[in-house]
């Protein structure tokens, strides 16, 4: 401790004796030349400047787990993908009351494009990731096809899911959210053995939602926003149930309704954003 204090004191003396008012200290600043690449200019004008959001379309190995083999995004797919994100993610959130300030405040500083699918060792697929609210990674960019409903719904589900992670990373989960369906959760390594029907009976919108509280929250937000038949499938009870399976589905829907109410109230309280207003805009776009 004495040695450290002595070193600090010596350093202070050196700094004091070296920095006089009349010293001429010239430090050459490193100059950065803005890219003149047409794509980079587009990104700068449409994403970096208005949202402070960098788009990483060139492959950089630090953005992907080294155990994964992936294909970079093709250059010609970048602007179509950016247009898709603008139309279905950025504009819907910014168009509702309080949505613009919420989006600009919490939009991740980086969005990473991966051209291919990303697979885990167990055969499951990584559609996207959200890293501490600072980066969202999207896969399957090279498969972009706005007329392919499967691709469209996968991407919508992924971007809304990952953006919902940013929400709970900043504001935690709604109070008592973990107590709504505590016995229905599985684990990150076994959720994929469930069927869609079994997940619904447990009170979840998808098998993946059963893997953890946070994934449940993010999946439910995503389904509320993009899934056209959300209310018919997950919210409204079937009438005249006469089978065990039907009764089980309705019991699961009762749990999902609790999550639905908790999520809407959570967003409204902490961000002022009405998620149903965002949903209305998204659904209108899907119906065009």
Cα distance spanning the termini: 70 Å
Structural class: alpha/beta
Taking strands numbered 1, 2, ... along the chain, how are they ordered across the largest sheet?
A: 1-2-6-5
Overall radius of gyration: 24 Å
Globally, the shape reads: globular
Mean pLDDT across residues? 86
DSSP strand (E) fraction? 5-15%
Number of beta strands: 6
Query: Which stretches of 5+ consecutive residues score pLDDT under 50?
Result: 1-23
Counting DSSP H or I runs of 4 or more residues, the number of helices is 10
Largest sheet features: 4 strands, mixed
| SSE order | HHEHHEEEEEHHHHHH
Fraction of residues in H or I helices:
40-55%
List the helices and strands and how they pair.
Layout: H1 2-18, H2 38-51, E1 54-56, H3 78-94, H4 99-106, E2 110-113, E3 118-119, E4 125-126, E5 128-131, E6 135-138, H5 149-171, H6 196-202, H7 213-226, H8 230-235, H9 244-271, H10 275-287
Helix pairs in contact: 3-4, 3-10, 5-7, 6-9, 7-9, 7-10
What would a concise description of this structure say?
The protein has 288 residues and is of the alpha/beta class.
Give a structural overview.
The structure is a single chain. The model is unreliable at 1-23 (pLDDT under 50). β5 and β6 form a beta hairpin. The chain is of the alpha/beta class and 288 residues long. The protein is built from ten helices and six strands.
């Amino acid at each position: 401790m004495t040695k450290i204090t002595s070193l600090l004191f010596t350093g202070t003396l050196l700094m004091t004796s070296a920095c006089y008012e009349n010293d001429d200290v010239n430090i050459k600043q490193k100059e950065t030349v803005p890219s003149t690449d047409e794509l980079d200019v587009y990104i700068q004008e449409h994403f970096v400047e208005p949202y402070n959001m960098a788009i990483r379309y060139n492959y950089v190995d630090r953005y992907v787990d080294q155990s994964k083999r992936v294909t970079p995004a093709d250059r010609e797919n970048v602007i179509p993908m950016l247009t898709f994100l603008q139309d279905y993610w950025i504009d819907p959130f910014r168009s509702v009351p309080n949505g613009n300030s919420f989006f600009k405040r919490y939009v991740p500083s980086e969005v990473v494009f991966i051209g291919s699918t990303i697979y885990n060792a167990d055969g499951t697929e990584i559609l996207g990731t959200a890293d501490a609210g600072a980066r969202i990674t999207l896969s399957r960019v090279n498969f972009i096809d706005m007329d392919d409903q499967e691709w469209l719904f996968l991407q919508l589900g992924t971007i809304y899911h990952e953006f919902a992670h940013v929400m709970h990373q900043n504001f935690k989960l709604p109070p008592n959210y973990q107590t709504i369906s505590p016995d229905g959760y599985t684990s990150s390594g076994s959720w994929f053995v469930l069927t869609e029907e079994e997940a619904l009976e447990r009170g979840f919108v998808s098998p993946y939602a059963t893997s953890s509280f946070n994934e449940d929250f993010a999946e439910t937000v995503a389904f509320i926003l993009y899934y056209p038949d959300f209310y018919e499938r997950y919210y409204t009870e079937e009438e005249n149930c006469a089978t065990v399976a039907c009764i089980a589905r309705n019991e699961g829907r009762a749990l999902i309704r609790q999550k639905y109410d908790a999520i809407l109230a959570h967003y409204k309280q902490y961000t002022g954003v009405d998620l149903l207003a965002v949903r209305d805009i998204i659904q209108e776009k899907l119906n065009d």
